[in-house]
Amino acid sequence: MEKVSLPKGTRDFGPAQMAKRQFIFDSIRKVFQRYGFQPLETPAMENLSTLTGKYGEEGDQLLFKILNSGDYLKDVDSVKLATKDSRLITNDISEKGLRYDLTVPFARYVVTNRHEITFPFKRYQIQPVWRADRPQKGRYREFYQCDADVVGTDSLVCEAEIILMIKDAFKILGINDYIVKINHRGILSGLAEILNASAKEGSLFVAIDKLDKIGEEKVKEELRARGFDGDLSSLFETLNFKGNTKQKIDFLGQKFTSSEKGKKGLSDLTEVLSLLAGFGATDDHVEFDVALARGLSYYTGCIFEVKIGNVSIGSVSGGGRYDNLTAVFDAKEKSSGVGFSFGIDRLYDAMEELNIFPKDARASSTVLVAHLDEQSFRHSLKIVQGLRENEISCEVYPEPAKVKKQLEYADKKKIPFVVVIGSEEIRTETVTLKKMETGNQLTLSFPELVTAMQLYK
Fold first, then answer.
1. How many helices (H) and strands (E) does the chain have?
2. Residues 6+ apart with CB under 8 A from 404
3. Cα(317)–Cα(343) distance, integer angstroms
4. What is the pTM of this model?
5. Residues 347 and 435 in one domain
6. Which of 78, 108, 215, 239 is the most exposed place for a label (fewest CB within 10 A)?
7. pLDDT tens digits for 241-266?
8. Domain end point (choices 309, 335, 354)
């Protein structure tokens, strides 16, 4: 018999896991809607022409491609086939691919629906994405993203609200130890300018982004391998400067006296923090990280990355400002935008590691109605329906069984309460309510039962 298995980098989620995942989805969705974002969904597949060239060379290699239907090799040139080089025939046999993220499909949607959209356009999107990456802890080939983007405005209020949304979401999720790292593309360009390395910005940024992962000496080795042979002391003096956000901004202000890009970056960052204060929020959990350099193939302004403390998972959220994303589809549609994304799978793993899921994210029903005989089974149906009409999740044990078996069922499903119906309960028009965690029992009328369960919720 063939062994049944899952593709590497994918996972099943059973009912207990889905209850926790749904708690994350619902919590983040509430926050997005609170800030005026509207829901959007796009197809799982996009034309390859839509996806390729948007994520850099490495990203293109991680795209899952979909074979054309039918005999996809029928019209492929025989000379190409003879080379056995799949890259030569990719365009002939595959026109579509699975989406790599939600940002490029969003940009495609904006361009193709620009006449129906009200700008600034605020959308959120919660859907799976696929990447042909090497599976490892916290990294999967199929995973969910929760994106929120605003397109059609340059206002830095959007950046401030991203920080607020992250704070609000983590408060609901019960995550208290986290850091929202923030930087600006202009600040990174300023660093390149003072090093006289503007022509090699990409190599510089890729290397310094690894500072907290591999350390200063390894970053220096990588920079020298990439052709940075000059004095690097000024760069690392800047990267290693200790102080609060204001002190870092003041320090960089002295460095960027002749860098307009650097000064613009500092100005934007200062304004975002000022707007945050205007909302009445503090900058706790916010850290200005000069070495943060993510998504630089498309981010042009502020850059964000979020990490949770005391877990083995890497970043769980990130984003930034982009000015040119829609322009890749239509040169006339150069709309500035800013957005960020939560990685649901990483959030889930981090919350499991911290053991902070609330108990009500683990239960399928609040109440199981158990019965002693056929008569009490019939009577229990009215109890179940009455509870459901009062928006209390419940279920009836569906077949005759000993009470012990029914209680074991509730225990395995983590149902916190069992209502037991017998002849005495029918005669007195009451129920026996058993709390599974403690074993305590109460005799209640139906209205009292409803009140008790509503208070529990």
1. 19, 16
2. none
3. 6
4. 0.86
5. no
6. 78
7. 888 899 999 999 998 998 999 999 99
8. 354
